User: Fold this.
Amino acid sequence: MAEVDEAGAPVASSAQPPSADAPLLRCSDVNISFSQRGSKQRLHAVRNASLEVGPADIVGLVGESGSGKSTLARAIVGLQRIDSGAVEFEGRRLGHTRTAEDRRGIQMIFQDPFGSLDPRMKIRSALAEIIRRHTSLRGKQIDTRCAELMDMVQLPRTILSSRPAGMSGGQRQRVAIARALSINPRLLVADEPVAALDVSVQAGIVNLLSDLRREVGLSILFISHDLSIVRTLCDSVNVIYRGDIVETRPCAELFDDPRSDYTRTLLSAIPRLNGPRTEGLAQGQSLGVRRR
Amino acid sequence: MTVDSTGEPLIVEGLSLALDIGGVQLNALRDVSFSLRPGEARGLVGESGSGKSLTLRAILGLLPPNARITSGRMVVAGQEFDLTRTDRDHRRRIARLRGAQIAMIFQEPGVALNPVVPVGRQIVDAVARRNGLTKRAAREYALHLMELVGIHDAAAKIDAYPFELSGGLKQRVMIAAAVAGEPQLILCDEPTTALDVTVQKQILSLFTHLRDELHASLLYVTHDLAVVAQLCDSVTVLYSGEVMESSDDLRAVFDGAQHPYTEALLHSTPDVDRIEQRLYSIPGSAASLSDRTDGCQFAPRCEYARDDCRTGSIPDTSGTPGRVVRCLHKVGAPADGVPVGGIDG
Amino acid sequence: MTATDAAAIARTAITPPSRKSRVWAPAWMRRHNLQLWIGAGMLGLMVLAAIFAPLIAPHDPTTPDAAHALLPVSADHLFGTDNLGRDIFSRVVYGARSDLTIAIVAVVAPFVIGLAFGIVSGYFGGWFDSIMMRLADIVTAFPFFILVIALVFLMGNGALSIFIAITCVSWVAYARLVRGEAMVLRNKEFVAACQASGISTIGILVRHFVPNVVSQAIVYAMSDIVMNVGVIVTLSYLGLGITPPTPDWGSMMAGGQQFLAGGFYGMTLFPAGAVIWTSLALSFLGDGLTHQLRIDR
Assistant:
């Protein structure tokens, strides 16, 4: 733990100036573990995980529940301590205690659109809070910025004076994105941002993220369990299984030629609209109902 | 539409339901009908607010206290029920169906398991009660079932309490308990939504097995069209409490959707085998319960909608037996004039 | 779609808002939230009476008038007179002054202390939380009334010691309540979102925790005022509370007790009625508020 505690102190190895093709975010050999109740052994949630996100890249991090994908995401934004390894952003090593400058660079959105906004706060106040914290904008300027943000996430400006209660899941998720983007981060960590949304709505959010990358050059670490969406959105994919990143490949390659067994299992398990019907149980696995 | 009620394990006809929200009666379901043949798996598909879970709960008699069924009847295993009745006798008859004729599997397995009884015993009890086995044979069978639903170390887990198991494991225990009695009708409400895809695959295999080998009928409520495509024979698509499209032949809908909503829903479902630059997204969002209007509920978001879509109730225009399409301007129909297989046809 | 989504749907459409009331009220009353208005109205009347006591009271509440002792209800003496010839109506009105003032003031301090400790305890957890909760356990280990009476006994009679005694004992309930709410909030994603975007801890606690937990505390405060009225009246009834001749419902009831056998019910009945009126008003108000605040969410 001590290794990462020197907050934002430049580390010798990252002294070289960030070149054009240097990654925006680099995690190297990150280990994260938790103490378990009633057990001396620690639970290793993430083991020696390394991943990179380049400028204006959308990188997928795919895994099932308990794979450690969200834990790694939380570590990247500084919500979770790491045991060892390094999280580097723009060539600077980030400690657990983040400066305002560190926070400005990386923002995060979450899965639950009903939990990620303060139910008591109007949207304008929620945006203003973070704008005031990180920029010198005040008064009218904040209102202007809020209006811009609403346009950016394709929401009517009238939303600003409402509270989350009456809003749909898709609208809330757009607000969460607006909030994250309000201070112009370079990297957005999106933890299952569409998992809780209806199919017809999730497409809109996925498209919005894709637009943001194209229009403002936003880099995105897209965490999901849904490979179909990852294929549409991402340039490259990291597959994480029980804390280990088992495969890191460009999207096109991974889907056509998965190398790790786990990726293959995962790909074959995805239900398909036009795929063959699910087969019954394998031979010798009959239900064998017994009656007297 | 009258249905010959012999043989069908489940018929639901003209189910309408109102919810009391703050003293106002709001129509949550309007004239929902479908039936299941023996050994058939029907997908009941819809997004949030479509009324799919309410439909299932209406069948089971497990509605929230502010819900009132305004019309509808159902037939389960030859017994007929007038769903508008609320008297004690009627409630008892419905309650007797649950667990005996109808097995139920819900999305949240935690709620359905008794927290202070080891999971194994909950299966054993279900097994012993339904199959008339001895305790010992029942335990052995419970172990077998647990392995079958993909619990690898069943012997270790059989004496665990629900809180000691993960969500996925609890769901499998639920399924094991539900299928123990070789039920002829299984109602599922998003049973795999909270599970990982690899687990989901095993559970779907299990359902397929139950249907193929035991001729159990399955009513599968979900938002996931791909799961329906993998598992079901027939499909009913709900939107804002109304049946939009329904067919006894699933592929007929999936390969040739006639209702604009079904088409849009299929179109917006991401497909891992299809590389797309942009996903299709349906404009707008579903109207809330209190904002529902006359006419087609999908009309405000529909690109085919015209003025006549916004009044009255929309008839079935499919013209094919076993198929329902409640739309005046179907996909692929001529741009103006009478739609194919029009109202008179 | 996940569990959260299902839960959200359940919240918005399927489940009716839970309306468990402390006071029974017919359905039509609950539907329009009449409890809130009736409660507010009833309490309002009592508060107005307390504020404008000198204008409302037809007689001086403290001057004895032996010539007019124990008079029955009449136009001049709406509630009759007591054994010393003082107008009961005037005394009840002035009693509202002393009792309501202490009851309401004695809610504010525990409210603020409990809110602060509860939020900090719930948000940080750890050793601070452990100490707070053990302290709370110690306070709750004693019956509420016994502890208050013991403290008042130590500090002597009077409004100030009642106020301090109530504060010492009843902040615990607020702290417990708020701590529970804060622990739920701590795991909400919007709190993580705030942390991730660099909002300071103070900012998170003040701008997000306080508004989210305060409504529960306010609802509880309503029933707490009822409790306080009970405490003050009981203490005064026992002779530990407000010192005579200051009018107070508790000492009035205590004084009237010995005349009950003689058929003079007014001395006890009317102050008791005032206590019931106030308690009922606050209960209605509490229920109404619960309902109102839940809808606003």
